[in-house]
Amino acid sequence: MSHTSGAAEPDKRRLRREFLAVRNRLTADDVREAAAALARHALELPELARARTVAAYVSVGSEPGTPPLLDALRARGVRVLLPALLPDNDLDWGVYEGPGSLARVRHAGRMELLEPSGERLGADAVTGADAVLLPGLAVDARGMRLGRGGGSYDRVLARLERAGARPALVVLLYDTEVVARVPAEPHDRPVHAVVTPSGVRRFEAPA
Predict the structure, then answer these.
(1) pLDDT tens profile 197-207
(2) What is the model's pTM?
(3) How many CB atoms lie under 10 A from the CB of residue 82?
(4) Cα angle value 91/202/18 (rounded, 5°)
(5) Whole-angstrom distance, CA of residue 112 vs CA of residue 110
């Protein structure tokens, strides 16, 4: 491990705790209202408007809510892929067929996740997505994302890079989670846009 990433880790851990503490104070109404606003703004993104396949995720707890967005994308005829966590923290994918197609799955040492209950398409299915919605805890002015630390999405981003896939990368956050700077390592890639309940901020046009 390089000296830089060694120094960044305690910083990242402290920041994660701080952002999670703020999220944990949100009420169910706060989360619901934010989810509706997030969906509204996300649906206006040109990258999502022209996408045929979107890789997304089902929010849990006080995470910025994705269910209204998943349903709106599906209603538009978009193929929505959702992740299923594998034992090694990598992600498999399945197609979202509506709220009834989700199963509650408890993974060791983690909160309960909602995962697609249908056919598994394999970890490489994400490379066919036109846009990938990423969970996170913060994003900075450069578009660098602070993840939750599980490493699942680092693997997804590495897989996209290996495949030469260039989907639009969009992170969904609360307004207070767009900050001046988060610790970043040399391999980190910026996202293209962040959607918050108050609107969209773009960092760079997808190639």
Answers:
(1) 999 999 965 44
(2) 0.92
(3) 25
(4) 60
(5) 7
User: For residue 195, with 0-12 CB atoms within 10 Å meaning exposed, 13-18 middle and 19 or more buried, which class applies?
Assistant: buried
Residues 165, 113: Cα–Cα separation, whole Å: 27
Closest CA to 84 of 54, 128, 114: 114
CA-to-CA distance for 172 and 109, rounded, in angstroms? Answer: 24
The tens digit of pLDDT for each residue in 41-76 reads 999 999 999 999 999 999 999 999 999 999 999 999
Contacts of 1 (CB under 8 A, 6+ apart): none
- Token pair in block for residue 67: 């269910």
28-43 helix and 67-75 helix, angle to the nearest 10 degrees: 30
Residue 143 CB neighbour total at 10 angstroms: 20
d(CA 198, CA 41): 8
CA distances from 93 to 2, 54, 131, 156 (A): 32, 11, 14, 11
Q: What three-state secondary structure class fits 173?
A: coil
3-class DSSP state of 57? coil
Neighbours of 135 (CB within 10 A): 22
CB 177 within 8 A of CB 167: no
Q: Which two tokens stand for residue 202?
A: 């773009």
